[in-house]
Amino acid sequence: MSVLTVEDLVVRYGNTVAVDHVSFRVDEGEIFGLLGPNGAGKSSTIKAIVGLVDFEGKIEVLGKPVGIETKNLIGYVPEEFMLLESLTPLEFFEFVASVRRIGNVEKVKTLIRAFGIERFVNRPIATLSMGTKQKVSVISALIHDPPLLILDEPLNGLDARSSRILKELMQRHVEKSGAVLFSTHIMEIAESLCDRIAVINKGRIIAEGTIEELKELASVEGSLEDVFLKLTGQYEGIKEIVDAIS
Amino acid sequence: MPSLKELWKISGYFYRDLVFRSVYEVRTHKKNLEKLIRSAKRSMLLNKMFLALMLSVMAIYTAFRSNVMDFVIFYAMITFLLAFFFLQATTTFATQNFDILYTLPLSGDEVSKIVSLTFFRIFDIPITTVTIVFLVAMIVRSPVSSAPALIGLLVSESFSIGLVVYLSRLFYSKITTGSGWKSVVRILYYVVWAFAFFSFYAFASAMGWLYRNAEAYSSFVMSNSKILSFLYPFCFAFLSSNVRTPNAFFGVAVWSVLAYLSLRWATSKITEVFTKFEWDVEEVELKLEISSPTVAFLKKDVRLISRSPALCFLVLLPIMESLILSHGSVSTAIVVISAFLVVVAFSLHGLEKEGITKILPVKTKTLVTAKTLLVVTIYLISVGVMNVIFAFKGKTPDFFIELSTTLSVFAMSVIVLIIAEKMNVRRDLYSGLSALVFLIIPGFVIVYLPLAIAFIFKILGEDYLIPLFTASFIEFLLALTLLNVL
Ligand SMILES: Nc1ncnc2c1ncn2[C@@H]1O[C@H](COP(=O)(O)OP(=O)(O)OP(=O)(O)O)[C@@H](O)[C@H]1O
Ligand SMILES: [Mg+2]
After folding, report:
1. ipTM, 2 decimals?
2. Which of B186, B357, B386, B387 has most Cβ atoms within 10 angstroms of its Cβ?
3. pTM score, two decimals?
């Protein structure tokens, strides 16, 4: 069953077309990776789904068009923090949980302990390190047990232990018939986690499928990194550039 | 080692970032970013020019009247007005990220200078303009006095910066954090903080009043010139108006040194206050209190307000205003207080600029209700404070007018917030003059319409209480209906 359906999505900023007729779907039990070079339109696609930017086209979560009803179906970790910096993490979770009408706070406490931020929950978020802020951001996306997780470069700044926890959580999540859409620049992670991948470049999806299918498409034997660079036309000239710089 | 000119140039990058971030929240919208940056720059410039103009008018007026009391008031006004405006800017400033400076080959001292210069840039035009205008006016008026006058002004400006850094330090270190017994201390500091703001306000009002009665006080000042001429700002005022006493010369020397020291202290502490404050790490009990979404918004807003000097001031303003206005009549007080509440309502909406609200399942009704409750509470506290003072003075509070206005304040808040939400106006006081006008005019109309109707009835010699109440009640019902159809 499809958890997320995106059809003919267009996102514009003034005259810039950041996302250009993008379509894809993420099914139940699936981790779907969005890969693409900087400025490709990954975050813009994601922001349209979570309701942060205006868009043209159709986006549905569990069959419902995105809007206020779908907001509790999504857990979102943005690429840049969207936290209330003068609150403490505890106050922030309290706010998010209340607005999402969560009755049981045990989940929040478990997550706080899992990510090991007990010592930091009582000082302003503004004073936390980047990684700790990211943990706050991840926890706030998970507290309402949403069927769809949307993570924009979620491993940014996380230490080894927390990345591992998050990765395992993502896998657990899809085993329990949830779905994950996530973007990353780390090819190894995409290779080990994703069931399917869409490669996006200059606002358009240029390839989509399982890793095997992508390799076939690019006719490349090797790592996902090679496939990715080939597909996005960035393979040529790397060696020359490195030579020139060193 | 970079020269001051280079440091100034570096501070320019941070300043531009600061201006940009004043409209940062709109970033996620489908808008033309370049246009936004331009308009942010423009409105920042307009604000600066407005302040520069205001200060220059004061400077010229003072220079040409050349009365001792006028100078006293002018110097004190400069110190407090600048401190007041600087404090408004500290919240944005405190979120500025200067970390990159530590990765560059700069000494700690240079980093401090860059941070200070960035801070100074927020008010560069007003400070420079008033200094030049004042100096020129003084030279025209009396060349001999222009030197002490200029020093007096520079000393006042330095004191204002020192005061701001001192107060911010107090605020950020003592007020914004802590739990358990610390929260008791926090409340105490909070009172001190509120008091500091109040004293500013009282001070500014008192100064305005003094200006109008300057001549009467001059004789008092002159007859006590022995002691006063040693004190700031009197010593500068005496010399600026050609009254030369040895004490005044001595005073100028001492206060100039103190001003220099305070400026140096402020420069060295500014980085500590705004960039690397250290927090205690402590284990705490994990306690979360889940409430309804409306209460959650209310709680969140109260927390945000209590931790931001600018917001805190804005909310306390109507309450302080009521303290001051309790000397006059009920109707004047209510007219002024309700006008402030329009700005409060508008600014409370600005708190949602953080974006997080957009990804949460929040109904417009929840948001508007939470913020309206806050606005009405502030109104009731203001009126309550005023009534207590009335009671002490043996005046009878006018509960009927107060009740009617509560209804129209409610209506105003609901409608202003709905417009703000539906128009997607996500700007704050410093970045969107046009949005301000858009929301403030309807707001004023709603709070003042019943009062205007009552006034007309009063002139006609009719009973005006029933029309006042009826008009407010209709507004209230209208707002309530609007809120429920959303
Ligand atoms: N608020 C905005 N205003 C104007 N243009 C924007 C805005 N946000 C993004 N863009 C532009 O839209 C395009 C897509 O940006 P987006 O953030 O979606 O890329 P991305 O794939 O997430 O890149 P990255 O890997 O660097 O995060 C880029 O050209 C970017 O410059
Ligand atoms: Mg991105």
Report:
1. 0.88
2. B386
3. 0.72
